[in-house]
Every structure is written in C-alpha cells, then in structure tokens.
Amino acid sequence: MFGTQSKRDLSLEIQSQIPILRPSIHSRRANITVKFQDLYGFTVEGNVDDANILNEGIPPVLRPKVWFSLSGAAKKKSTVPDSYYNDLIIAVEGKVTPATKQIDHDLPRTFPGHPWLDTPEGHASLRRVLVGYSFRDSDVGYCQGLNYVAALLLLVMKTEEDAFWMLAVLLENVLVNDCYSNNLSGCHVEQRVFKDLLKKKCPSVYAHLEALEFDVSLVATEWFLCLFSKSLPSETTLRVWDVLFYEGAKVLLNMALAIFKMKEEELLMANHVGDVINIIQNTTHHLFDPDELLTVAFDKLGFMSTNISKERKKQEPAVMAELDQRLRRLNSSNLDENS
Amino acid sequence: MATTGHNNLNAKLVLLGDMGAGKSSLVLRFVKGQFLEFQESTIGAAFFSQTLAVDDVTVKFEIWDTAGQERYHSLAPMYYRGAAAAIIVYDITSADSFTRAKKWVQELQKQGNANMVMALAGNKADLEEKRKVTAEEARAYADENGLFFMETSAKTAANVNDIFHEIAKRLPRAQPTQNPAGMVLVDRPAEGARAASCCS
C-alpha cells in the first residue's frame, strides 16, 4: 500500500523508537521518544521518514497512538477494567439530565455541515462521548465548548472510546483545574495569567489594549475553552494539540501570546476594540501554516522562565473573591446554576 | 456607552439569553441577512458591527453576542459593562428561557447602566404551534420593567431589523438642532421613556 524503499517500516520494528521533534523549534530541540511497547495494540499502516517527523510534527497516521500515549490517556484507561467505557455508555443510556438536554441541543450545532460529524452516526457518537463524560464527572457535567473539543478528538482518534479517554485526560490532567466546571473559575485564572504574560512579553501592545479598554479574555475565552479548535484552521489546531499533549496547558498561553506577538504592529495601529477583534480573528482564521504560529510561539517568545503554576496560584484568590462577590451581589436574584 | 460624533453615534449592544434562544441567529439575520437552521454554539462571545441610519443620525452598533449556557454567566459583566443597549432574548417555545430572560433583566437592572436601552425579544415567533410563552405575558412583564418588547423570528426575519431600529431611536443622543448645548446628562433613568413599550 505504501512504498517502503528508503523508509523505515515502523510497524515492523517493535523495539525501535520514534524520535519526534517538537514542531518548529530550531533553537531548543527537545526530543521526545515514544517507545513502541508503550503504545499497546500498535500497528502502523504507513511509513514515516525522519524528515516528515522533523518538519511536520506528529505524522497524522501516528497521531492517534502518539496522543493516546503522550497525554496519559493510555495510562488512565489502563487503571480501570477494559469494559469501563462500554459499561458507562450502557448505564447512562436513556437517562435525561440538564447536561444531556444541553448536549442534545448542541449536537447539530457542532461544526454543522461536516461530512461525518453532521450525520446521525456522528451525532450519536459525539453524544455518547459527551453524555458519558457528563456522568463520569458530574461537577463538570457538560460545558459548551467541550462539544468542539470532543468532536475534533473523535475525528482524530478514530475510535469513540479513545476519544472519550482523551477528553477525560484533558480535563482531569492536562488542562488547569476547573476550566469547565461550575463558574469556569479555572478559565478566569488562565485569563489573568495570560494578561500578566502579555504585559511582560508585549508591554506596548498590552498598554495600548488597556487604553482601548480591550480585555484579552474577549478573544482568549474561546481559545482556552475550545483549545483553539473553533479559531484556528484544523490542521494548525492539531499541531497545537501535538504540543499541548506533550508540554501541557501552558502551551495554550504560549500560542495565545504568539498570536498577539505576530500582529504587534497592526494592533498598535488599532484605535477601537472592534479593530482589535477583527485583526485577531483575521489572523487566527487564516493561520493555515502551523509553522508560522509555532515558530513565533517557541522561537521568538520563550517565557519558560516564568513559573506558570506559581502564577496560577497567585491569581486564584483574586478570581475566587471576584466570583464570590458577584454571586453575593446577585444573591437576591437567585441565579443558580441549573445544570 | 453611546458616544456621539457629528451625526454619528457608536453604541455598544449586548445580547443575553438562554442557550439556543437564537441570539446568534438574530445577529446573523441583522448583520448579514442570513439564517442558518443550525447556528454554531457561541463560546465566550462573538463580536459584530453594523451601521443603521435612523432619522438624521448614523448609529454604529458594536454588538456582543454572548454564550448562553448558565456557567458562562460569570463572564457576562465584561460584555454588558458600558453597554448602551441590551437585547434579552428568549425562545417563545421555551418557558425556561423566559425565566432566564427575567433573571438577565434583574441583573442588568442591578449592574447595568441606568440609561441602558433594554429590549425583550421573544424569538422563534414562526413556531406558533409550539408556543409556551404568550405575547401578553411577556409584554406585561416588559411594561412593568421598563423594557420594550417585540416578538421576532430570525428565520423569517420578522421584526429583526425593527428591534435594532427601535433601539437606535431610543438611544440617548445629542440633538444639535433642538439642543445646542449638547448631550444632557441625567442622573437617574428617565422613567417616562423607560416605561414606554412598543407593540410587536
């Protein structure tokens, strides 16, 4: 099916290792090594040459297996009986909760028009993953945004069960805590951390945006909750996720920063909130070349010296206080979460 | 806040309401004249702008279309802060969405600008056979609370431009001919104007 000359047939070399270089990091090449034995059930229907791995991130044919291993999903799955997912799906079938109603509402509104997602099978598959997860973690239940994340996972992972475990590992291990739960407090924290980073890395843009009363979360909320799947072309999103599963949630901050950095000069010329939004959206929607973004994110920035977890800890009390205060103010309106 | 140039007025407008009530569809209809049976769910918020000529004034709306799910509520103040107008949208086929709309009204009354022009939109008016909220009930609520009310349909376009037009007309503005001194600043909402309602 595929030519094998001058290429290594990976599926035959059980003991060999695939060196995967972080995409487009010329200054700071970090090898990550995925051992074949880690990727259980591993069969590769294709060949990969080193040049592809070097220049193009994780090859699409390997992506499901590499993501599954890298992210910790494989490990997470291995701690429960093999039948976990099937049992869960059977157990929750036919149950109706506020979360399932919201999921049903969003199924046809998730990448509408997609040749597979927007079919009865696509909807049913996405529904099982989201509903299953809403029962696995009832604190999260269903949060709008997860529909896009789960949909893209389904498209990449091929099997529904693997997509489910990827979603689980994302929410439980990879991303910051409470990103999707209750009042999105984790997302609020992330916005503040991002704002501080922007102030450090792009001080003039930061000052200009402040003067325009542009809050970065006007654009970054969608980025952090959909992991860019709704903002970037999908090929670029997948490359971002390659790095996300390897390096963790701080990658999202790095990408967000890179987007602002790329358009620094244009943003400084903007004199209205609407202009800023248009510049940013025009940029993200047309980032068809992943290297353009990743090069800025890793070569031209490089804020790894900042201790992100420390920054998050620092912001948490302020976010909690703000959310509390808000709830108190609205107390008499009895604005309870209905999910 | 609404700010004026010569005969130009910039007005920040926010749409609030339950998920699936049709906020994004109303905006899409108003801004692009389009309708999609299944509109992508909005995460965070989406921004649009659209210009309307009303009388002698050009009103440029800067529209914030927000996410409807309850937990996104904690982000809302960022969008309604400084807004000159709000459209609170519910779905006439869903009583729950009407309850949510009332909560939004309460919040805006507490937290929003005193002079904010508020409109209540009963959307999906084309789905008469599935109606759960009567126009009378909604109009009575709107009257009591100083909103103006219209039933709209993003699908058929009924009343969509009208609701934005009506908001544009009601925005406080400088009137150079009648009021050469410029904009009159009021401390309290003008009760009479706020209580006026509009028929659908």
Automatic annotation (TrEMBL), chain A:
GO-annotated molecular function: GTPase activator activity; small GTPase binding
Pfam entry (one): RabGAP-TBC
Domain of life where this protein originates: Eukaryota
Coiled-coil residue windows: none
SUPFAM superfamilies: Ypt/Rab-GAP domain of gyp1p
Domain Rab-GAP TBC: 57-248
PANTHER family in the cross-refs: RAB GTPASE-ACTIVATING PROTEIN 1-LIKE (PTHR47219), TBC1 DOMAIN FAMILY MEMBER 2B (PTHR47219:SF20)
Protein's name according to its UniProt entry: Rab-GAP TBC domain-containing protein
Species: Ambrosia artemisiifolia (Common ragweed)
Lineage summary: Eukaryota, Viridiplantae, Streptophyta, Embryophyta, Tracheophyta
TrEMBL record, chain B:
Major subcellular site: membrane
Gene3D superfamilies tied to this protein: P-loop containing nucleotide triphosphate hydrolases
Stated family: Belongs to the small GTPase superfamily. Rab family.
Compartments, as annotated in UniProt: Endomembrane system
Protein name: Ras-related protein RHN1
UniProt superkingdom: Eukaryota
GO cellular component entries: cytoplasm; endomembrane system
GO molecular function, one term: GTPase activity
Function: Protein transport. Probably involved in vesicular traffic.
GO biological processes: protein transport; vacuolar transport
Organism encoding this protein: Ambrosia artemisiifolia
Keywords tagged on the record: GTP-binding, Lipoprotein, Membrane, Nucleotide-binding, Prenylation, Protein transport, Transport
PANTHER family (alphabetical): PTHR47978
Membrane topology designation: Lipid-anchor
